[in-house]
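## Example pair
The file below holds two records. Each record gives the amino-acid sequence first, followed by its structure token line.
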Amino acid sequence: MTLIPRTDLDVNPLCLGGNVFGWTADEAQSFAVLDAYTAGGGNFVDTSDSYSQWVPGNEGGVSETIIGNWLARSGRRDDLVIATKVSRHKDAVGLSRASIRRGVENSLRRLQTDHIDLYYAHYDDPDVPQEETVAAFGELVAEGKVRYLAASNFTADRLASSLRIADELGVARYVAAQSHYNLVHRETVEGALAELLETKNLALFPYYSLASGFLTGKYRHGGDGEGRERGAAALKYLDERGFRVLDALDKVAAAHAVEVTTVALAWLLTRPNVLAPIASARTVEQLPALLAVSGLELTEAEVAELTTASA
């Protein structure tokens, strides 16, 4: 377990993504995954009020509802750190005070809980003054509806100004960030954002940690994506650089007798401020390779080899 700086939240180094719940995993499958994840020592679940409204007939909130039903059945609410997000659900768009207030109440109801452990601004909203957004989030913490705040998909500049405004207003500030980051997509984080996270001592929780499945090693040829929900997204990495990364992953995985998936996640844990990559599992069978990251320590030479291959 690792303590998130500036909080009392102790989290597993593998954050379970809830985006597949109600999408590629129905409620029964999702319950099985949650059962197995927690049985394996996991305690950190990430979702959003908008998951998965991209599915025809799905109005969003389904992932939260499934997690809430599981929490009610299992009675394990106090054992878990639950993270969810606001700004993308059709009933709570953007980061105005009204949207944030509406979003948090809906999320609390669906999750069947009286508080959210880590509440994200899912996407920045340049159309709303940051003072309004920051103050609204601060109210939620003061009221006990939310324990800690975080920012997802923010630029370094916008994250920095949000932190400054929170300090000026004397309200709770963001303690963590979430961004697209993995071995074949490094540009969003590395640079200004990474420097800010380091300076401000903020945790980073990368999403798309496995590049839509590409970094599991199951996509090696053009035909491997046929019939898969994320096949097209993964196959875009099948180029010279992608093959270099797979070769390096194969070599390191063989040296440790682990799966390629585990190595890809372990590399992220060597990056500054990364405390837990986010990865989802559609089936129980996919979980062991994810949870195994907590027991894998890469050598400096292996980290360098992976970093160079993905440059």
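Second record, same layout:
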Amino acid sequence: MTTDRALAQSHNNVQKGRRRIALIPGDGVGLEVVPAAERVLAALGLGLEFVRLDAGWETFRREGNALPEATLAALRQCDGALFGAVSSPSQRTPGYSSPILGMRKALDLYGNLRPAQSAPVDGCAPGVDLLIVRENTECLYVKQERLEQDGRRAVAERVITAEASQRIARLAFEQARLRREARDGVGRSLVTVVHKANVLAVSDGLFREACLAVAQAYPDVEVEEQLVDSMAYRLVREPQRYDVVVAPNLYGDILSDVAAALTGGLGIAPSANVGDRFVLAEPVHGSAPDIAGQGVANPVAAIRSAALLLGYLGEHEAAGAVEGAVRRALQKGAATRDMGGALGTDEMTAAVLAELG
């Protein structure tokens, strides 16, 4: 892994000492995979202090708020957090708002880092090692929607600002530099700027211009641009050529799922929401209500997200140990149902723990 070290070096405000980690299972399979990741973190002997917090659809149904103020207050007293998954109501529900979007906004977690690396599982594209850097606060995710013409016309506003585009671009270029350092200077250092400025000339045009302006401060990093539809095509055809991909919120969300499909599936895909002072790691997958409570959910994405969290905290050796344990377990054939295997959540976690030693 290169991402955990790069992430930590980008956030050197974290100090050594006893760390307080928030655990927020959320809904569905989050209630199963977060405890699995906690078992792995606890086995490392780092003396982490775990704080269990509530957020999600079930919390909303119980308390009338999907992200209670008590949860936010406790998060601000923690060094980092691991979030599971959130279910969403099937229709518009007065008073409900996504807790993950709320945490990103409240804690200014402006970047979403989603590494995609080839894994020793069937159907995985070989030789892939890329990082998608997704802007995390704007685009259509501002959720400024309205109905007009007596409900016959729906309008969604899309927000792109120069400030948010510049800072996500800086994060992407810094990550490209750090990934190259982690490879001892070997290989290409490249940032691919994704947009659709040929159609959305104002909003995507601003994102494009902001990213290319930031690129001028990083002459040691190559830069290129791709239209989002072309990027989706080329990502499937030649994922090995990419290093760091930076995109607005919606495009980054979609492209990261494409990258996950190429590198073992959503069941093993980690991510980290990052700001200048905090990180909230979470598996890329959702709450999977169709399998929730059955003990068959894949815990690997949550475990690998915990490794990203460790990297942020500066625990590079521990983060590498977790990644290595996951890889060895997969190499030996450990697999849950989504990967064509038969192991349940507990058995898959045990397989990782056995390799952790």
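Notes on the second record: The mean pLDDT is 93. The chain has two domains: 1-109+268-357, 125-262.
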